[in-house]
Amino acid sequence: MTALMNNRLDFTIKAYLKTVQRNLGTVVDDIARGFFVITHSSFALLGLLVAFGVITLVARQDLREAGEVKLMAWLQDRRGTAISPKENVPVSNAVALVERPVAEKPKVLSSQQAAVASWISKKYSVAQEPVGALVAEAYEIGHNVKLDPTLILAIMAIESGFNPFAQSPVGAQGLMQVMTQVHHDKYAKIGGRLAAFDPVANLRVGVKVLQECITRAGSIEGGLKYYVGAANLPSDGGYASKVMAERARLLDVVGGRRPPAPRLVAAAPIAVRVAPSPSPTHAPAEPLEKKAMDQEVAQLGSF
Length: 303
Known about the structure:
By secondary structure, this protein is mostly helical. It has a domain at 94-291: Lysozyme, CATH 1.10.530.10. It is built from eleven helices and two strands; from the N terminus they run H-H-H-H-H-H-E-E-H-H-H-H-H. The protein has helices spanning 2-59, 61-82, 94-99, 111-124, 128-145, 149-160, 184-187, 199-217, 220-227, 239-254, 288-301; strands at residues 172-173, 178-179. The protein has a two-stranded antiparallel sheet with strand order 1-2. The radius of gyration is 34 Å and the shape is rod-shaped.
């Protein structure tokens, strides 16, 4: 009797265990199937969202450009946090200023500065990172000397097309095409005449020259005529108009408006530049190109 009861108990336990095992298998199978359905639906939804986003960016150029600007600003912020405090110490040594590559330690850009750097990079086919450093420098210097940074950047654009090694036939050098022979005293404290080809040094000296020209002329347009060396000439060859037009386009970018689509341009030819006289009381300077031509004529006449 006891053996029969034990056999029944064993059978009951085995049957119960089999039922539990079967139920557990059903639950696991249901969970696996549900997970697969959810994952499959999620990937399908994600694919639809990506496709919709790509179509939207292709159709809406303004949204694409705004996204590029925000992404650039975010990347600049990330890079700025990676710079150690030691690298942020202002450089006071003149030699270090000349030897420092402008693209090595770019400053953190605001959203407006990033937009300007992106637009300049596309229009003038220059790398965005060093241009971003120049834009930040122009904003900082412009704030310190009460000059619109877009005016400074517009002069760089018209003068050299953002080529720091540009040099005109009459000796104007660097980003802002400063006449190094005339303004060599301004380079003396920041590395000498060769500093004309350091982008930041040339920018700082160019802004000083621009300040002097605007002060002498009494207006921005008049100062630009002095800056290009055409103060004593009937016309500046449209130089001031070109600078002001480029400044207006940059202001559109700063204001979030869409200027005309960037057009790939090379460094524009510099207007006829003359060596400015040291002070307003000096006689009008004769254009250097005319002087060179007169010398050649004199030499031919001597044969």
